[in-house]
């Protein structure tokens, strides 16, 4: 959806139904995504006949990692790898034999996801 808005929003807001049709996703699901990304400050929405959705930031300032962090809150795949203040720490983290693996793979994954910038993808 973010890429669709970046590509098709050059001349103004992009309507939800057009995004849903191009991306082959339901309008109801798209509206849920729009709310989450709007709360996070990535999308702005306008009502009315000329309304729709626009990026709230320059596409060169948005990474795929930013989007994944917003949509996967809290991350389901790295509960034991998150920082102390970001999520509940696992009660086994002090003696977990695999925690270091999840910490390292999560770091590597987000390092790579952060290297993909929406503006570059467009």
Compose a concise summary of this entry.
The chain is mainly α. The protein is built from six helices and two strands. It has two domains: 2-55, Arc Repressor Mutant, subunit A (Orthogonal Bundle); 59-121.
Q: Gyration radius, to the nearest Å? A: 17 Å
Fraction of residues in helix:
40-55%
- Taken together, the total number of domains comes to 2
Tally the helices: what do you get?
Answer: 6
The helix/strand order is HHHEEHHH
Classify the beta-strand content into a percent band. Answer: 5-15%
What's the arrangement of strands in the largest beta sheet?
A: 1-2
Query: What is the number of strand segments?
Result: 2
Average pLDDT level = 87
State the end-to-end CA separation: 12 Å
User: How would you sum up the major sheet?
Assistant: 2 strands, antiparallel
Give the low-confidence spans. none
Specify the structural class: mainly alpha
Shape: elongated
